[in-house]
Amino acid sequence: MKKTPLMIRVEEELDDSLERLLPRLYNEMGLQPMADLFGVKKATAWYWLVRFGIRIHRVAVPEGHDVYTKRNGVKRLVPKSPTQLVIE
Questions:
Q1: What is the pLDDT confidence band of residue 87, given thresholds at 50, 70 and 90?
Q2: 3-class secondary-structure state, position 65
Q3: DSSP 3-state helix, strand, coil percentages of the chain (rounded to 5)?
Q4: How far apart, in whole angstroms, are the C-alpha atoms of residue 78 and residue 61?
Q5: Is the confidence at residue 73, as pLDDT, over 80?
């Protein structure tokens, strides 16, 4: 896919490719802060996610639980526990 000059500028400023930056930053900070970091509007950041084929999955999690996601797409809810450090 051909990248726009704005995409190239963001990659140069952050010294990484958008393909790697977008999913990581979306997970770490969310859409609006990511857009602010890139210096673009929220709609532009969302369009880039779509254009690069990055899928967003939202999960409702009850109070006191965490969600662990495996590569094969299986999700499971796990009760939070300060001593539980099991990640499969």
A1: very low
A2: strand
A3: 45, 10, 45
A4: 10
A5: no
Please give the pLDDT value at position 88: 44
Query: Do 76 and 82 contact (CB within 8 A), yes or no?
Result: no
Kindly state the average pLDDT of the residues 64-78.
Answer: 62
Q: Which residues have CB under 8 Å from 2's CB, separation 6+?
A: none
- Give the span between the Cα atoms of 10 and 17, in whole angstroms: 9
What whole-number distance in Å separates Cα of residue 81 and Cα of residue 78? 9
pTM of the model: 0.68
What one-letter code names the amino acid at 70? K
11 sits in which H/E element: helix 5-14
CA separation (Å) from 39 to 2, 4, 36, 84?
20, 14, 5, 39
